[in-house]
Design brief:
The chain is of the alpha/beta class. It is built from 16 helices and 19 strands.
């Protein structure tokens, strides 16, 4: 059986003072291993180290001679795409059929939906002969039908598979081993994700209890150190000759005797011992991860006189001769409109049309489905220009979505999930009355999704969002716009209350 072996691996981002991985050891066997952790914990970085896209500071990785890495970004087409589409083997046809790849997609990358791009990415990755196949968020952008197809396609892989995903259905369907990255610590469970999560929950509960006990002990030590400092200060005053008269030889001899017998050192030694215990306990506590407080709030004042907003009945062109037709659609104060439908039916195209046509006379937040590298670079520049008060608010929002904002800004390779959190946080500084989100859960970790979901439920303004996450859709939406194929070369929109 082939094994991927990682020994004493250490890596730090060029702009960071502390390593994200410090001397980790890990063995990954054949079958699918899933890697989980909050955004910025190092999931994608670990994959890039295994694929040799990044070089470790020290340590070694064996068993990664033939590695295929299917990244989560769909900005660029795979280099081997044309070769794959021109291959007429039984295996290639099987993959194209399994993933619903259309011959017309070759050369049409720029006009494909992100879901169609993802299926092409996966087909190319699965067609390559590799010892290790690494897949980063493969069900992002995919509708439920396509998600089921992807699961079956990935099950066909027989080598060492490493999967990063926030999709709980996918994680349980594939996982034979679960690797959790928690505060720089790498934990491995020989079980599927849900069982590993349950086991980690028990571990975390114990860690929280230990931390609580340590915090209590640290407070006691703090009080003891303070008392002992006061004793040392009094001792110094007692053994000082400053206020002894010049000719008071008896008092001077008494002080000298005390000093000679070491009475002035005793309190100082006790103080040093307590301070050492305090420092050691503080360092020990640093190894027990402290959970971030989660949950964000939206404080925008809803400008009611600007609502309702509407788009008139119309048809807009989509791919080739296909068009999307919709009735008059409107949104009013308090509406949370969930948009759903299969890939390629025009959901993102409609949002772009909606943003162009509606006359917004107040602040709104629009976050697209994907953020390009250039857009991310511009975002970081904008954040750098914020004043200290605004940065403080921004960092708090990002932290409450489960990431360390300062570490994020230091990272030279922030994950797409981290960039999305930063974009959401910066947008919230505008106190928007309207929020438009295209696939908001893409790239985000599970804890952050739950936090965002709860916050959007409490949001008092107007929300329009696209999602393939059924639970997310049902929990938030007050009404839905369902996109579906109605005729040949025509898609339509149906409003469901």
């Amino acid at each position: 059986m082939k094994t991927l072996s990682i020994r004493n691996l250490t890596y730090r981002y060029p702009s960071s003072e502390t390593p994200i991985f410090n001397g980790i050891d890990l063995d990954i066997e054949e079958g699918w291993s899933v890697v989980t952790g909050v955004n910025g914990s190092g999931k994608s970085t670990l994959l890039k180290l295994i694929s040799k896209e990044l070089n470790s500071e020290k340590g070694m990785i064996n068993g990664n001679d033939l590695v295929v890495y299917c990244a989560q970004s769909t900005e660029f087409a795979p280099e081997e795409l044309e070769e794959f589409m021109s291959t007429y083997t039984k295996e290639a046809f099987k993959l194209r059929d399994l993933l619903g790849v259309d011959d017309a997609w070759l050369g049409a990358w720029d006009v494909l939906s992100h879901g169609e791009r993802k299926r092409l990415q996966l087909a190319v990755a699965l067609s390559a002969e590799s010892d290790v196949l690494m897949v980063d968020e493969p069900t992002n952008h995919l509708d439920q039908k396509s998600q089921a197809i992807v699961i079956e396609a990935l099950k066909s892989f027989k080598g060492i598979g490493i999967l990063v995903s926030h999709d709980r259905t996918l994680l349980d369907a594939l996982s034979q081993q679960t690797i959790m990255i928690k505060a720089g610590e790498v934990l491995k469970y020989r079980s599927k994700f849900s069982l590993a999560q349950e086991a980690y929950g028990q571990t975390l509960s114990h860690k929280k209890k230990v931390r609580s006990e340590q915090e209590h002990e640290l407070k006691k030590l703090g009080r003891r150190v303070q008392l002992e400092r006061e004793k040392v200060s009094l001792a110094k005053q007692r053994f000082s000759k400053k206020n002894v008269g010049r000719f008071d030889s008896a008092e001077k001899e008494k002080i000298n005797g005390a000093i000679f017998t070491g009475k002035d050192k005793k309190d100082g030694q006790i103080l040093q011992s307590s301070m050492t215990k305090q420092r050691q306990l503080s360092e020990k506590m640093g190894t027990v991860a402290k959970e971030y407080a989660t949950g964000i709030s939206f404080e925008g004042e809803v400008s009611k006189h600007h609502f309702p907003l509407s788009v008139e009945k119309s048809c807009i062109p989509l791919f080739e001769s296909t068009e999307l037709c919709f009735p008059r659609l409107s949104i009013d104060v308090g509406d949370k409109v969930g948009i759903s439908g299969e890939n390629g039916v025009g959901k993102s195209s409609f949002i772009n049309y909606f943003v162009e046509k509606v006359d917004f006379q107040h602040e709104y937040l629009y976050i697209p489905q994907e953020i390009t590298d250039n857009e991310a670079e511009k975002l970081f520049e904008d954040v750098g220009d914020l004043n200290s008060e605004e940065k403080g608010e921004l960092f708090t929002l990002v932290q409450r979505l489960g990431s360390d904002a300062k570490a994020l800004l230091q990272s030279s390779v922030p994950s797409p999930g981290e960039v999305r959190k930063l974009l959401i946080a910066r947008g919230l500084l505008q106190h928007p009355s309207l929020i438009i989100l295209d696939e908001p859960t893409n790239h985000m970790d599970l804890d952050s999704i739950v936090s965002l979901e709860a916050s959007l439920q409490a949001y008092k303004g107007v929300l329009v969002f696209i999602t393939h996450d059924k639970t997310f859709l049902e929990n938030i939406s007050t009404k839905q716009w369902v996109f579906e194929k109605s005729e040949k070369e025509r898609y339509s929109v149906q409003e469901v209350l």
